[in-house]
Design goal:
single chain; five-stranded mixed sheet; 4 helices; 5 strands; alpha+beta; about 65% helix; about 180 residues
Length: about 180
């Protein structure tokens, strides 16, 4: 029986998430599985991966073959590196302490990269928000200026109309005054 570590699709249309499972290679994609060892959500940035590394490593050691995407996930989580280092320890190429040291160095580097990406995304979002607020303020200032000009023009037109009406009234008033007298 060939055992594979692969993804099992869940979620809704255009918003999938996946369970990482160990299954018989003959089983359907979303069908029966032997063990669920984690989940993968590509909808977040960075993608959310929850993986039981110990169980994944145990399955790799007994010969389970990961699919291409599962191999990438296992590599990202360091399970393949751990398997490689354990193989080196078994062959006597390095000691367990050296393997643990290499593992811890790799883990620290990966965690630093992930944190840098998260901080970069947060800074980009903050920068975009500030730019949007500045652009909105600029548009609001332009609208306020246009509205002020329009009101100023209306006031000026009303003053001119009042002045014209007053001028007509003064012209008509003297003509009427002599007629009454």
């Amino acid at each position: 029986m060939a055992v594979k570590i692969r993804l099992q699709r869940h979620g809704k249309k255009n918003f999938a998430f996946f369970h990482i499972v160990v299954a018989d290679s003959r089983a359907p994609r979303d069908g029966r599985y032997i063990e669920q060892i984690g989940s993968y959500n590509p909808n977040t940035n960075p993608a959310t991966i929850v993986l039981n590394s110990e169980r994944a490593l145990a399955w790799l050691k007994v010969g389970a073959e990961p699919s291409l995407v599962a191999r990438r996930i296992l590599s990202y989580e360091g399970v393949l590196l751990r398997n490689h280092l354990d193989g080196g320890v078994a062959k006597g190429a390095l000691t367990q302490e050296q393997a643990d040291q290499k593992w811890n160095e790799w883990k620290a580097q990966r965690d630093a990269k992930v944190n840098a990406k998260k901080e970069g995304l947060a800074k980009d979002a903050e920068k975009k928000a500030k730019e949007a607020i500045a652009a909105e303020a600029k548009v609001a200032a332009a609208k306020a200026e246009a509205l002020a000009k329009k009101r100023e023009a209306e006031i000026k037109a009303a003053e001119e109309a009042a002045a014209a009406a007053a001028a007509e009234a003064t012209e008509e008033a003297p003509e009427e005054a002599p007629a009454e007298a």
